[in-house]
Specification:
Layout: H1 3-59, H2 63-68, E1 70-77, E2 81-83, H3 84-92, E3 102-112, E4 118-130, E5 136-149, E6 155-164
Parallel strand pairs: 1-6
Antiparallel strand pairs: 1-2, 3-4, 4-5, 5-6
């Protein structure tokens, strides 16, 4: 074998080994990638469940449970911006009164970003109650809620905004 052939054979073996190493790394990472995708699906399911439980806290008119889903410095956007627990509770107070209006919603989609610590839910809402003139009124719309995973693994709301259907 000539010196040129020997160098070519050596380069070929090196490339082959490099290719096998890359393939081995890829195969070793495949379960991790699959787990990450499953974890994101599980996280999305968790925020969908949290959103539904959040809705139940309003249906039960439970202020304490309601606030347990919201980070202290959250922002809710409605007829005005509400920042923090006190402002949000004040803005939502009528929904906790015995004969107050009702607000129900249902998430239709939830996703979690690739890092697994931030996600969102979107869905539709219905508000029912008496208008200023005392007649029954029903308003519908859609919402977007942004969730952040907490150190204890729970998901809490950091931002919420809704729009009224025309």
């Amino acid at each position: 074998m000539s010196q040129h052939d020997s160098r070519l054979a050596s380069k070929t073996r090196t490339r082959w080994r490099s290719g096998l190493a890359i393939l081995s790394i890829g195969m070793a990472m495949a379960p991790a990638v699959a787990r990450a995708q499953l974890d994101l699906k599980a996280a999305a399911a968790a925020i969908m469940a949290a959103d539904r439980a959040f809705n139940q806290s309003v249906a039960a008119r439970d202020r304490v449970k309601f606030l347990s889903f919201i980070v202290e410095n959250a922002t809710f956007v409605g007829t005005s911006d509400m920042r923090g627990h006190d402002a949000i509770l004040k803005g939502w107070e009528s929904f906790f009164q015995k004969d107050g209006p009702t607000l129900t919603w249902e998430p239709t989609k939830g996703e979690v970003l690739v890092a697994g610590d931030v996600g969102y839910t979107v869905g539709s809402w219905v508000r029912r109650g008496r208008g200023p003139d005392g007649t029954f009124a029903e308003t519908r719309g859609q919402y977007l809620t942004t969730w952040r995973k907490q150190k204890d693994g729970t998901w809490k709301i950091v931002y919420d905004i809704g729009s009224t259907a025309p």
